[in-house]
Amino acid sequence: MSGLPRATLRESEIGVDAAQAAWIAQRAFDALLGELAAWPKPGLVSHVDSGSHTDMDAPLLEASAAALHPYFAEPGTRGAE
Q1: Cα separations (Å) of 57 from 8, 51, 52, 65?
Q2: Element holding 64 (H helix, E strand)
Q3: Model pLDDT for residues 17-63, shown as the tens digit of each residue
Q4: Cis before residue 40, ω within 30 degrees of 0?
Q5: Can you tell me whether residue 45 is helix, strand or coil?
Q6: For the chain, which end, N or C, has fewer CB atoms within 10 Å of the first or last residue's CB respectively?
Protein backbone atom coordinates (compact mmCIF):
# COMPACT_ATOMS: atom_id res chain seq x y z
CA MET A 1 0.00 0.00 0.00
CA SER A 2 2.95 2.34 0.38
CA GLY A 3 2.87 2.92 -3.38
CA LEU A 4 -0.57 4.53 -3.23
CA PRO A 5 -0.75 8.31 -3.31
CA ARG A 6 -1.49 9.82 0.07
CA ALA A 7 -4.58 11.99 0.32
CA THR A 8 -3.91 15.56 1.33
CA LEU A 9 -7.03 16.83 3.03
CA ARG A 10 -7.36 19.96 5.09
CA GLU A 11 -8.91 19.71 8.55
CA SER A 12 -12.10 21.33 7.25
CA GLU A 13 -12.40 18.60 4.61
CA ILE A 14 -11.76 15.84 7.15
CA GLY A 15 -14.31 17.12 9.59
CA VAL A 16 -12.22 16.28 12.66
CA ASP A 17 -11.39 19.29 14.82
CA ALA A 18 -9.70 19.55 18.21
CA ALA A 19 -12.96 19.07 20.09
CA GLN A 20 -13.79 15.91 18.14
CA ALA A 21 -10.25 14.58 18.61
CA ALA A 22 -10.59 15.18 22.36
CA TRP A 23 -13.93 13.35 22.28
CA ILE A 24 -12.27 10.37 20.57
CA ALA A 25 -9.48 10.39 23.17
CA GLN A 26 -11.97 10.45 26.03
CA ARG A 27 -13.96 7.53 24.57
CA ALA A 28 -10.77 5.44 24.23
CA PHE A 29 -9.82 6.24 27.83
CA ASP A 30 -13.34 5.42 29.02
CA ALA A 31 -13.20 2.10 27.13
CA LEU A 32 -10.03 1.08 28.97
CA LEU A 33 -11.58 1.91 32.32
CA GLY A 34 -14.77 0.11 31.30
CA GLU A 35 -12.79 -3.00 30.46
CA LEU A 36 -11.15 -2.79 33.87
CA ALA A 37 -14.54 -2.45 35.60
CA ALA A 38 -16.03 -5.50 33.88
CA TRP A 39 -16.05 -8.62 36.04
CA PRO A 40 -16.02 -11.58 35.92
CA LYS A 41 -13.91 -12.10 32.82
CA PRO A 42 -11.45 -14.89 32.11
CA GLY A 43 -7.79 -14.03 32.52
CA LEU A 44 -8.05 -10.23 32.44
CA VAL A 45 -7.26 -7.61 35.06
CA SER A 46 -10.15 -6.26 37.14
CA HIS A 47 -10.62 -4.57 40.50
CA VAL A 48 -11.26 -8.04 41.94
CA ASP A 49 -8.07 -9.77 40.74
CA SER A 50 -5.28 -9.69 38.19
CA GLY A 51 -6.52 -12.66 36.21
CA SER A 52 -3.61 -14.41 34.52
CA HIS A 53 -1.44 -11.28 34.63
CA THR A 54 1.36 -11.44 37.17
CA ASP A 55 2.72 -8.07 36.02
CA MET A 56 -0.50 -5.99 36.08
CA ASP A 57 -3.11 -4.95 38.59
CA ALA A 58 -6.00 -2.47 38.59
CA PRO A 59 -4.02 0.58 39.80
CA LEU A 60 -1.31 -0.03 37.19
CA LEU A 61 -3.89 -0.41 34.40
CA GLU A 62 -5.56 2.84 35.53
CA ALA A 63 -2.18 4.60 35.57
CA SER A 64 -1.32 3.34 32.08
CA ALA A 65 -4.70 4.47 30.74
CA ALA A 66 -4.11 7.93 32.24
CA ALA A 67 -0.61 8.05 30.73
CA LEU A 68 -1.94 7.12 27.28
CA HIS A 69 -4.96 9.45 27.38
CA PRO A 70 -3.19 12.48 25.84
CA TYR A 71 -2.07 10.37 22.87
CA PHE A 72 -5.47 8.91 21.95
CA ALA A 73 -6.56 11.98 19.96
CA GLU A 74 -3.88 11.62 17.28
CA PRO A 75 -5.06 8.29 15.82
CA GLY A 76 -8.54 9.77 15.40
CA THR A 77 -7.22 12.67 13.38
CA ARG A 78 -4.73 10.48 11.48
CA GLY A 79 -7.44 7.98 10.62
CA ALA A 80 -9.43 10.75 8.98
CA GLU A 81 -6.55 11.69 6.66
Answers
A1: 43, 9, 10, 12
A2: helix 58-68
A3: 778 888 889 999 999 999 999 999 888 999 999 999 899 999 999 99
A4: yes
A5: coil
A6: N
